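Bit of a strange request maybe. I'm writing a small parser for C-alpha cell strings and I need a real example to test against, not something I typed by hand. Could someone generate the C-alpha cells for this chain?
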Amino acid sequence: MRNLASIDYRHEVPFEVHPLYPGYLTKVTGPLTAQDAETIVSRLETMIADSDRNYGFNDWFEATRYETHARVVFTRFVIRNRARIAAVYLGINASPMLSMGAQVANTALGGFMRIYNDRTRFDQALEDYRRDHPAPAM
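Reply from user aminoacidic:
Good idea to test on real output. This should exercise your parser:
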C-alpha cells in the first residue's frame, strides 16, 4: 500500500480556468496545492483586467482537500480585486473541512461569497448567469 503523504499531487493538474463574460469559472478536482492556487490566481488576474464588474464561479464540488495557504491565496485575490468583482459563487461538497475553510474565507471577505453545497442550485446559478451574460460574438 502506498503512503498517501508521499504522493506528489502536483502532476495531476487538478484544476481548470475558463473565461465568462465578464468573469471566470474555476473547476477544481482532487487536491489543491498553494502552487495550484497561485497559478489559478495569476490566470484570473489577466481574465478580470478588462472589466470592472466580474463574476467569479468556482465549481469545487470535486475538490478533495486543499492546503491552507491555497485558501489564503484566493482570499487575498478577492480582497485585492474587490472593486472589480461583483460576486463570487463557490460550489463545494459537504466535506466538513472544505465547508469550514469556505466559511473562514467568507468571514474574512465580510460574507461576500455565495456558497452552495447543492450542485443543482450552483449549476442553476451558473446557467442563469450565462443566459443573462452571453459571450460576445466573434
